[in-house]
Design goal:
The structure is a single chain. The protein has 224 residues and is α/β, with parallel strands linked by helices. It starts with 5 loop residues before the first strand and ends in a 9-residue tail after the last helix. Helices cover 44% and strands 13% of the residues. It is globular, with a radius of gyration of 17 Å. This is HAD family hydrolase.
């Protein structure tokens, strides 16, 4: 009996071209706290949960970590990110990929480390209604990436064993989470991580963007 795959997608840098808007929003939030951190260091943490992200950044800068500061950083990041909403666009082929999966009857869901306060901006740009499509955000799980909770919850929403899932993401945190829940990781270069980094973190295939993935969908369990 053939096991049908399901597809679980990260959002930022995977379906939506929004990674660098997040970087700039975090930079604004950190600057407001008097924390001087290079943007490349911020980029390396995108894909983690906001809480883990801020804890790591504050630890790297040897500054005091407390709940009040972490919450203030999160709030200021979300506020800054919403100001970038007008510049956020779907990545090439993202809408076409999701439409193709839907037409072929292949289940898919979205699992993002972002909270709905920022994910809503991306979903609107993508044209995805969270009332009609399974979307799991950081608000709904105990731990975010690199823990696997987001992806296991998304698979449960689809009623599918996590072992049948293709986890599609752009960061090493996506691939590590996929490996930890025994799913197969598919990496995309559209978030700024390199092919070697994604493969070393567990990706079985790496493509440029959603359009490239759709072109080669048969390689990861789709049928054209």
């Amino acid at each position: 009996m053939r096991i049908e795959p399901v597809f679980l997608f990260d959002l930022d840098g995977t379906l939506v071209d929004s990674v660098y808007q997040h970087v700039l929003a975090w930079k604004e939030a950190l600057d407001a706290e008097g924390i001087d951190l290079s943007v490349w260091r911020i980029h390396r943490k995108i894909g983690m949960s906001g809480g883990l992200f801020t804890n790591q950044l504050l630890r790297e800068t040897d500054l005091e970590i407390n709940e009040v500061r972490v919450e203030r950083l999160r709030h200021n990041h979300a506020e800054a990110y919403r100001r970038y909403a007008g510049s956020i666009r779907p990545l090439p082929g993202a809408r076409e990929l999701l439409s193709w999966l839907t037409e072929e009857g292949i289940p898919w869901a979205i699992a993002t480390s972002g909270r709905m306060e920022t994910a809503a901006v991306n979903l609107a740009a993508l044209g995805v209604d969270p009332d009609k499509v399974p979307v799991v955000t950081r608000d709904q799980v105990r731990y975010a990436k690199p823990d696997p909770d987001l992806f296991t919850a998304a698979a449960e929403r689809l009623g599918a064993p996590i072992e049948t899932a293709m986890v599609v993401g752009d960061s090493i945190w996506d691939m590590l989470a996929a490996t930890r829940c025994r799913a197969l990781g598919v990496g995309l270069l559209s978030g700024g991580y390199g092919s070697d980094e994604l493969r070393q973190s567990g990706a079985i295939r790496v493509y440029e963007d959603p359009a490239d993935l759709l072109e080669h969908i048969d390689e990861v369990g789709g049928r054209r």
